[in-house]
Design a protein that fits this description.
InterPro entries: Inositol_monoP_metal-BS, Inositol_monophosphatase-like. This protein is an alpha+beta fold and 266 residues long. It has helices at 3-23, 41-57, 87-91, 162-177, 189-197, 211-223, 251-261, and strands at 30-34, 37-40, 62-65, 69-71, 77-85, 98-105, 108-116, 121-126, 131-133, 136-137, 150-153, 182-184, 203-206, 227-229, 243-246. It is globular and about 50 Å long.
Length: 266
């Protein structure tokens, strides 16, 4: 078994443990951690459990989690964990949420697992091995016409400079809404990216790049044959400003729309 295969088995086991925790907690507490930003005690319970599991299984690899920050020195390798991506959905009983776990090596992810605990699907990928949903290979969209495209757009910005950031988002929504088949705002980057990999969405435009939100989904999309770029069209890395995932046939159309929204002239 290759190292990536062994680490993928660990990632798969980790998100399975997370699913058990999420589904075993019929009640939970919700608190605010920022401007319109929520955390539940299930988020922290999942992160604590997976930190302990990953530290025991891979002590040589660091961990960055959304709720507890960074720990360990992995020498450039670290797990990026979002214990519940889509907490606002989860807190309201909306079943669109996921647990996202990626192994990041340098600037890119090499192992990924995203599980959707209420939809019964686990997406997995290892670099060079393809992307899978419950063990079945998946592929990104081959659409080439914007009129055929279903596009997910990430949440509006909150906090500092939100008004300025959202002006560009509104311009982008107006542009895409006039030409795409449908626009969706699902409230979870994990699902946005997993569904681009699975061909359910033709593109996902996440205008931020928190590694715990995006790095697992980025690998899934690439292994499924899709493209993932930064807002300016350059190849996506862990340090990118945005995460733009798209079936290869619509890459130029999407980047052009982003340029118009942000007033970029090339």
């Amino acid at each position: 078994m290759t190292e990536h295969a062994a680490l993928l088995d660990i990632a798969r086991e980790a998100v399975a443990k997370a699913t058990e925790i999420v589904r075993s907690r019929p009640s939970f507490s919700v608190s605010a951690k920022g401007d319109r930003d929520l955390v539940t005690d299930v988020d922290t319970a999942v992160e604590d459990a997976l930190r302990a599991f990953l530290a025991a299984e891979t002590p040589e690899i660091g961990i960055l989690g959304e709720e507890r920050g960074r720990s360990g020195d992995g020498g450039g390798r670290w797990w990026a964990l979002d214990p519940i991506d889509g907490t606002a959905n989860f807190a309201r009983g909306i079943p669109l949420c996921g647990i996202s776990l990626a192994l990041v090596d340098g600037e890119h992810s090499t192992v990924a697992a995203i599980t959707l605990p209420y939809l019964g699907v686990t997406y997995t990928a290892a670099r060079g091995e393809g992307a899978f949903a419950n063990g079945n290979r998946v592929g990104a969209s081959t659409a080439t016409e914007m009129s055929d495209a279903m596009i997910a757009v990430g949440d509006f910005a909150i906090g500092e400079l939100a008004e300025e950031k959202n002006r560009a988002r509104l311009t982008l929504l107006s542009d895409l809404g006039a030409r795409a088949q449908k626009i969706r705002m699902l409230g979870t980057a994990a699902i946005d990216l997993a569904w681009v990999a699975d061909g359910k969405l033709d593109a996902a435009l996440i205008l931020s790049n928190n590694p715990w939100d995006t790095m697992a989904g980025v690998l899934l999309v690439r292994e499924a044959g899709g493209a993932v770029v930064d807002r300016d069209g350059s190849e996506h890395t862990v340090g990118s400003a945005a995460t733009i995932a798209v079936g290869a046939g619509l890459r130029k159309e999407i980047v052009d729309a982003l340029d118009r929204a942000y007033g970029v002239v090339r």
